[in-house]
């Protein structure tokens, strides 16, 4: 799949922002700079996501189809999350107290928003690498780990970082065989028996399908990006927690998550690639 | 609403005969023409006379080399377009309600005025049947020519999809696949019509008729063996010559 910068930024920033806000809400921390940082990260992420729309003026309609569409659910949850979190944060900072129940509710909505984002990808059977429980698990774990780096006690942050690393490795591991496990081949795609090979594409030029879903170039440096992800998202932040350099740890972690998200898109193979003799 | 309607008894769709299709691309042109001049945003072209022309198409014809077991390879032309799936994943993912499946006949359509161009439905379709128009910024897909099939302003024989009407070899058939006695259903039963990627659970309405097994030319009788070692007088001569110095 095409690694669109707007989607990579969107999912990484909102994940970190909502993860941080969830921790602040649950722990009842009245830290104005951290609340501001969380809201700015989440808000910037949602703004980035509208860059992906060709007709953003119609985005209001995206609040209507929550019964079936994870993208619609995400849009509604995002607004609810930002509203409840802002209320809780404002009460904590201005009044020095806010009901713990409101905090728990706000955190739950924030995490459900991250879950909805991940389900947009995990629901797609056409992209076998994404269609796995490890996709939502990884998105949630990364959000929680990133937030914990800024707001949670050190051992808690380390525990979440370790969990996220395990899930990241697991997601990569299942991804290697995902397409084969799904069982789609050029034979099932065409119904032709025997050995089937693409002989000529329909048109000599490029097209939307190939650019959007058969984006092979972006995969070239996968091994290097995996290494960078492990270093930046997990190893360095863990080391930076020792001298308690929280902000630096979170910034490094975000850089690592961006690498991981690039790979998430770049390595995902869509079944339409089969028709073009590519994946 | 992007919830799928309850299954309709009427299931309009196409049956494509891979045995007959010669890959002439006439359906591609007819589709592009009709759907550019009629319903919805035109199917745009980018750089049409330049070095790298490209455009939006609702139907694309591939060619495959297929080598059945114990038979020579053959070329199969393969038109690919929306299959109007019964469990259409493209419909349920749509956040705006622009994508829908028509309750009365199962045709999968996009309300272009409600589409925000997020592209998620194109990702959800396993078959690459949806394309975002580069100029209009809305999702385009095969409509089964909704503006032809029930159009009383057209002569009776034209009230079928443009691709079916134009196909010079009769490789494309249009009809109600929900009716087991319709011509298309009988054709599917007779020729063993197939679903594409059935493992993904989309339950396509469109069916593909596999190429018929080709006739085999009888295996030619082996040629007479050319004698490698001469016998009789020639054999004696050969051995005698070989015995001379310098041979
Ligand atoms: S072929 Fe693709 S676009 Fe058409 S109904 Fe099926 S999933 Fe949707
Ligand atoms: S591109 Fe348009 S039709 Fe497709 S999912 Fe998005 S809003 Fe719906």
TrEMBL record, chain A:
It comes from the Bacteria. Coiled coil: none annotated. Its EC number is 1.8.99.-. The keyword Acetylation does not apply. It is an enzyme of class 1 (oxidoreductase). GO terms for cellular component: dimethyl sulfoxide reductase complex; plasma membrane. The keyword Transmembrane applies. Keywords: Membrane, Oxidoreductase, Transmembrane, Transmembrane helix. This is Anaerobic dimethyl sulfoxide reductase chain C.
TrEMBL record, chain B:
InterPro entries: 4Fe4S_Fe-S-bd (IPR017896), 4Fe4S_Fe_S_CS (IPR017900), ET_IronSulfur_Cluster-Binding (IPR050954). Keywords: 4Fe-4S, Iron, Iron-sulfur, Metal-binding, Oxidoreductase. Pfam families: Fer4_11, Fer4_2. PANTHER family: PROTEIN NRFC (PTHR43177), PROTEIN NRFC HOMOLOG (PTHR43177:SF3). SUPFAM superfamilies: 4Fe-4S ferredoxins. The keyword 4Fe-4S applies. Residues 202-229 are annotated as: Disordered. This is Anaerobic dimethyl sulfoxide reductase chain B. Its EC number is 1.8.99.-. One of its GO terms (molecular function) is 4 iron, 4 sulfur cluster binding. Residues 12-42, 73-104, 106-135 form the 4Fe-4S ferredoxin-type domain. CDD domains: PsrB (cd10551). The keyword Calcium does not apply.
């Amino acid at each position: 799949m095409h690694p669109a910068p707007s989607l990579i930024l969107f999912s990484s920033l909102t994940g970190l922002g909502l993860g941080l806000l969830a921790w602040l809400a649950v722990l009842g921390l009245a830290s104005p700079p951290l609340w501001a940082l969380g809201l700015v990260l989440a808000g910037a992420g949602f703004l980035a996501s509208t860059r992906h729309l060709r007709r953003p003026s119609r985005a209001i309609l995206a609040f209507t189809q929550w019964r079936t569409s994870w993208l619609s659910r995400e849009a509604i949850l995002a607004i609810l999350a930002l509203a409840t979190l802002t209320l809780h944060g404002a009460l904590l900072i201005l009044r020095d107290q806010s009901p713990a129940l409101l905090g728990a509710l706000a955190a739950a909505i924030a995490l459900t928003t991250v879950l909805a984002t991940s389900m947009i990808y995990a629901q797609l059977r056409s992209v076998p690498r994404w269609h796995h429980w490890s996709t939502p698990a990884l998105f949630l774990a990364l959000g929680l780990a990133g937030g914990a780096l800024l707001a949670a006690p050190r051992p808690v942050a380390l525990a979440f970082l370790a969990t996220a690393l395990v899930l990241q490795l697991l997601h990569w591991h299942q991804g290697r065989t995902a397409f084969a496990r799904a069982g789609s081949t050029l034979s099932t795609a065409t119904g032709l028996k025997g050995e089937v090979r693409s002989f000529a594409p329909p048109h000599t030029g490029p097209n939307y399908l190939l650019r959007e879903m058969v984006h092979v170039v972006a995969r070239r440096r996968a091994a290097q990006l995996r290494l960078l992800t492990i270093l930046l998202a997990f190893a360095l932040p863990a080391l930076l927690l020792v001298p308690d350099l929280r902000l630096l740890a979170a910034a490094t972690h975000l850089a690592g998550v961006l690498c991981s998200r690039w790979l998430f898109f770049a390595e995902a193979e869509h079944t339409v690639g089969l028709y073009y003799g590519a994946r | 609403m992007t919830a799928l309607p309850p299954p309709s008894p009427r299931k309009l769709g196409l049956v494509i005969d891979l045995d007959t299709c010669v890959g002439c691309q006439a359906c591609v042109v007819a589709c592009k023409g009709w759907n550019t001049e009629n319903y919805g945003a035109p199917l745009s072209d980018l750089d049409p006379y330049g070095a790298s022309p490209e455009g939006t198409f609702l139907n694309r014809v591939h060619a495959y080399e297929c080598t059945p077991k114990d038979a020579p390879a053959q070329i199969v032309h393969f038109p690919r377009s929306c299959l109007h799936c019964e469990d259409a994943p493209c419909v349920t993912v749509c956040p705006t309600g622009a994508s829908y499946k028509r309750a009365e006949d199962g045709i999968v359509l996009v309300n272009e005025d409600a589409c925000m161009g997020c592209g998620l439905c194109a990702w959800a379709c396993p078959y690459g049947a949806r394309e975002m128009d580069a100029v209009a910024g809305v999702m385009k897909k095969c409509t089964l020519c909704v503006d032809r099939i029930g159009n009383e302003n057209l002569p009776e024989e034209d009230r079928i999809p443009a691709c079916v009407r134009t196909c010079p070899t009769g490789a494309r058939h249009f009809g109600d696949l929900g009716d087991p006695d319709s011509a298309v259903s009988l054709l599917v039963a007779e020729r063993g019509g197939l679903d594409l990627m059935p493992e993904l659970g989309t339950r396509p309405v469109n069916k593909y008729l596999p190429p018929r097994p080709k006739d085999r030319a009888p295996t030619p009788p082996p040629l007479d063996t050319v004698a490698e070692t001469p016998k009789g007088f020639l054999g004696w001569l050969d051995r005698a010559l070989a015995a001379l110095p310098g041979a």
